[in-house]
Design brief:
By secondary structure, this protein is mostly helical. It has one domain: Growth Hormone, Chain: A (Up-down Bundle), CATH 1.20.1250.20. The chain is built from 16 helices and two strands. It has a two-stranded antiparallel sheet. Strand 1 and strand 2 form a beta hairpin.
Length: 435
Amino acid sequence: MRRFGLLFLLMFLEFAIWGAWLPVAQTYFQGQVPAGLGFNGTQLGILFALMPACSIFMAPLFGQLADRVFNSERLLATLHLLSAVTLFAMSRQTTFTGTLVCLLIHCLLFSPTVALCTSVVMHHLDDPATQFGNVRVAGTIGWMVSGWVLGFWRVSGRFQTPGDLFVMASVLSLILGIVCFFIPRTPPSKAAADGDRFAFGAALKLMNNTNFMMLMIIAFVICTQFDFFYMFTPGFLTSPTQETLSRILPSSYQGVGGAGLGILPQKVSFYMSFAQMSEVILMLSLPFLIKRLGYKWTIYLGILAWFLRFAIYVFFPTLLGAIIAILLHGFCIACFLIGGSIYVAKVAPDNIRASAQALYAIVTFGFGRVIGSILGGQIENMNTTVLPVRLPLPGMSDLEKLINWQAVFAVPAGMTLVCALAFPLLFRLKKGELD
């Protein structure tokens, strides 16, 4: 029970750190000075690309270290303690250069930790397929709780500082760094059964498995659209409604798009946390879904949810539609990403467990998201109209530009539709094949 509690706490804090800043980073990075930093779409895309870009290099490096050299829990402790310092420094930055440097260092330190946490947890579980969801749900709860705490903190109006999201993440990272010293020992493998000293090279051989390769390809394409949700949902929620735009915009700017839902920025964390509410339910249901549907159709359910979420943003841009789209996040994460991770653990030999998870992280949160982040920034710029003057909005920041949100979200809707059509044909794993 003590071991389960520590693993649960590990996952809780790991994702609480990320959840403290990522869901509201767009409004902070692009908000007006002094409450925000005033960055443009290209700069936003660069910043959002840092974490996945760092994953490409850091995940295999630390996967190799964990599989062959050091105890995984000690690596995690070191990375999180150093990351706490960089996150606090991040909260004090006011320029793009300073923000870029601090966030880059943080991403170098944090990017390998998710795969390491997954590997550590699966190492200490007797049956990851049925038990992992019960531990991984702690990450969802941590993400959700940190968003709520930040939201309530801001609404209370006490001791507010523009970089509060990174201060909170820094404190959580410090706590996790200390907790990692109490995690059960997770030593590296003494030797590779196949003779490969380079664990990541052995993990790459899994691509010879056709189903594994198809999952990696589909996962890559899906994750190029991942940050469209986090980069643009907050902006869509807080943009003025069509009724407001019709009232304040000059006639020459009517019809260029830009309407949102008019939600106050202070309430964004609350609405975004709906994603984690559904994730908790789906994470706890994941063992049942895998047993009932098998890996293939559980993963496919997640892919279908990715498409439906963005399609709702495009065709049903209402508050109810947005809530439904956000709630679909649970299927996207639990069924697709976590279901895929469990599949990877199932097919990978024990002596390359960390490196196999690192490979999955590189494909999804590495190459996929780095391309998606940059693409997202460019798509935003292509669909942005800058107004000649600032227009005042009661209770909100002045309106400086219009973003055609439906045009932006049409891109990930189209890409994920292709994946939803292709996956059942290309991934031919039969139900019960891995039991």
